[in-house]
Amino acid sequence: MTAEEPAGGEPAGEEPPAEETAPEGTGADAGASRPEEAPPPGFDHVLRALGGGPIHVSYNNAAHGNINTGSVHGGQAVGDGPAGDRRRATRVHEGPIPQAEVDAAAFGFVEPDAFRTCLGRLRDDGLLFLSGRPGSGRRTTALNLLRRHCGKNAALRALDSVTELDRWRPDDPDARGYLLDGLFPARPLGPGVLGNLRDLLARAGACMVLILPDDDPGLLRTLERDLHISPVPYEPPPPVAVFHQRLAAEVAEEPERSRLLGAVEPGLLDELLVPGVVPHEVVELVSFVVAADGERAALGDVRERLSYRAEERVPPLVDALRDDADGLAFLLSVAVFEGLDHRVVREEAERLLELSEGRLASVLEPTEEGKEPRPNPQFVFRRPLRELLRSVGGRREPREIRAAGGFSSAVEPVVFVRQGQGEAVLRHVWREYGQLSELLVTWLREVDGRDELTEPVARMMGQAASWGGGRTALRHIAHLAASERMTGRLIAARALGIAAEDPVLVTEVRHRLGVWAWGRDRNRRATVAYACGSEFGLGRPERALRLLGTLLRGVHSDIPEETGVLMAVQSALVRLHQAGHEQRVLDQLASWSADMAPDAGPLLSVLPRLLAEPRWFQSELAEQTARAPVIVALIRAALNSADAFEAVCREVLRWCETARWEPTAAAAVEQLLTALADPMEYGTLRLFVEIERSDPQVATGRGIALRALRDWRTGASRTRPGPGPGPSTSTGSEAA
């Protein structure tokens, strides 16, 4: 029994802590000076906040400018699309590893020196312990080891770092390889545990790679002393080899590579590609070279842009601004909101300065006459933008046109010159200046609900959990999870997903989500659902669906206060569907709707959102797979529901209109309508009447609907009783 499914309504094996309540004056919404935000427009707002939602094309208008739209994700991988692309590969921590992640790991990969040794251990023992520095490319190497040993397209699964190996069993008969990224056993590992693990893997015809941190010498000593296991020490490949291999993968033609390298200052690569530089930092350099397109001016001073030198720059940067309240506020604002328009960054810096109530100023207001007054913080010409940017090592990027939220706007992003400077600043001040963390949380938890603000705030809140540590690491997120503002709950959900990237913090994240899911606080329950649709749930789809099932047991759609929880559950299901877990979402939706019948209408109202991305559904229907009857049953139930009919009918009609261009879609529509017609139910009758009224030239399957209606009107078809007519749609008797 998992922590999400405890007996008696509480997590098993643990005394559930009392739900945290923020002390008066320090809670999630304490001191809020702005009115509650207007109700969001629904799913699109939530999906964008969780990283999904409608895809918008972004057009960058930067004359003579160089826009790097890629994003570095660690290891030897770098994204080549916008960081907010909802379909980008998510690093899975629990469950099947998508083929996209495996392929990304293989792209431009350079084998480290120990690669052959690791392959030999996998072949001989089926079990490999790999130790190395976090962030040095261990996971990328592990995925390539599994890919090489198990086969290019073999099914691989990830295990969370808190997996207890003495209880674990291979539960996927198709999986050939397992990856456990970070081993933090609650109970000591013994020879019997490892022997049983080897037997289980051998019987399943699978192997496993366990990634160990080299900063836990106690664990490594235990493995060597008690279990006689010597983990293979991982050292990243030479930076020069990574650079040239990655460049060759990015640019296939040698003459083109030579042209791009012509923009690099002579001797610069020898200076930068030194031992100690890890692969993802080398990939960063490759991305700069490729983006410069052979122009030295566009490449600029790479030394000032590489992230690995960011840490050493922070202390003198903060010291230089110690007597400068404006500079400190602006520094912190750029660190959080790097990449946004300069007006947004300045606005947030101003709000932070106001909230600080003098705490960012080194000179106080004079209390005696004759003393020098401090500069007026309300003076609008206090500091020009160019001086502020120069003081924090930032720059204003060329004008860009960005499309989001249904309209386009011109922005001039403010960014640090040095890559990774923002995170380094925030990490330093959070650790070194204890009272500042409270001010930062107060500032950031009250941001507006705009998507461009909530994403960087959530990232910072999640990262801060690992910067602080201790038993209060997630306290600031827990207070935010109880917020009455939807924006606060969405930020908390994404922050929990980011915090769960830490293999130690993930235990607390999982525990808190389990407790909140069974709790009575509707805001925290909604936060759990949002977390299931954010990074946490997308990386652990099976656990996310179990949590959502727990939430649904306590949802009463007739209670107005519960509608927020239900919408959060629905948004999480859409996100999981978009992330490639369509089959699991469908199976769970069918199971839940059967359990909730005849009150499943509110839950089934999520189905139109899923059908709006029809490729998977149509493929299953056209090929008549084992999932096809489940899809038909769900659509039938939704058509019979007063809550879901209008939207589901609209999506099916759209399928009929667009299917004429695609043979698979046309076959799917015909299979669906044929199955719905036998037996003819009330919702199907209403749908077929709408198809009858549609344009004969564009509606695929219209003939099936017309024949079914004719048989029904003449009494020749098999019918099944259905609910009464909806409030605004033609009934079957009217159609007759």
Secondary-structure blueprint of this entry?
Elements: H1 43-49, E1 71-74, E2 77-79, E3 95-96, H2 99-106, H3 115-125, E4 127-132, H4 138-150, E5 155-159, E6 175-181, H5 191-204, E7 207-213, H6 217-226, E8 232-233, H7 239-250, H8 254-261, H9 268-272, H10 279-292, H11 296-299, H12 310-320, H13 325-337, H14 342-356, H15 385-392, E9 394-396, E10 400-404, E11 407-411, E12 414-416, H16 421-432, H17 434-444, H18 451-468, H19 475-481, H20 486-499, H21 505-518, H22 522-532, H23 535-539, H24 541-553, H25 563-578, H26 582-596, H27 601-604, H28 607-611, H29 615-623, H30 628-639, H31 645-658, H32 663-676, H33 682-693, H34 702-713, H35 732-735
Helix pairs in contact: 3-4, 7-10, 12-16, 13-14, 13-15, 13-16, 14-17, 16-18, 18-20, 19-20, 20-22, 21-22, 21-24, 22-24, 22-25, 24-25, 24-26, 25-26, 26-30, 29-30, 29-32, 30-33, 31-33, 33-34
Short characterization:
The chain is α/β, with parallel strands linked by helices and 736 residues long. Helix content is 51%, strand content 7%.
Task: Name its key features.
736 residues, alpha/beta, six-stranded mixed β-sheet, two-stranded antiparallel sheet, disordered N terminus, nSTAND3, Novel STAND NTPase 3 domain-containing protein
Description:
Residues 23-32, 714-736 have a biased composition (Low complexity). Residues 1-49, 67-88, 713-736 are annotated as: Disordered. Residues 109-169 form the Novel STAND NTPase domain. This protein has 736 residues and is of the alpha/beta class. The strands form 4 sheets. Strands 3-5-6-7-4-8 form a 6-stranded mixed β-sheet, sandwiched between helices. The protein has a two-stranded antiparallel sheet with strand order 1-2. The chain has a two-stranded antiparallel sheet with strand order 9-12. α22 (522-532) packs parallel to α25 (563-578). The longest helix has 18 residues, at 451-468.
